[in-house]
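Risk register update: the risk of archive-format incompatibility is retired. Evidence:
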Amino acid sequence: MLILMKIIIKDKRHLPTAVKKLLASSGGKKIFAFYGPMGAGKTTIIKAICKTLGVTGTMTSPSFTLVNEYKTTGGEVLYHIDFYRIKIQDEVFDIGIEEYFSGGSYCFLEWPEVVEDIIPPGTLKIRITVDKNEQRVLALS
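Archived output:
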């Protein structure tokens, strides 16, 4: 995986600045795949991105619903998709995953390893690691 850039999030106070940098560095891509261990901050970072894009109201992890749909104040629809509970890749076709990927809306994917074969080319891949100081390091590729 070729690393395009790294973004360091020292703590939650730095999250808004980090997600603005992430969005500015995305090259217009709208599908973001977040890789990282449990507790690395995938959901927290996605919520911060959604807030930066204009989502108001409650945002939750879609671990049980698989897909959460959010609307921005400007009416744009964003999708937060969590593949953690998917055991067989074919299950995602039942939720219409192709439509989410081809619809032109932002799609934020957690646990994309499960569906790696069907993630569209050009998806921004973000690997999150936690360093010894509990900082989150985002490696974009």
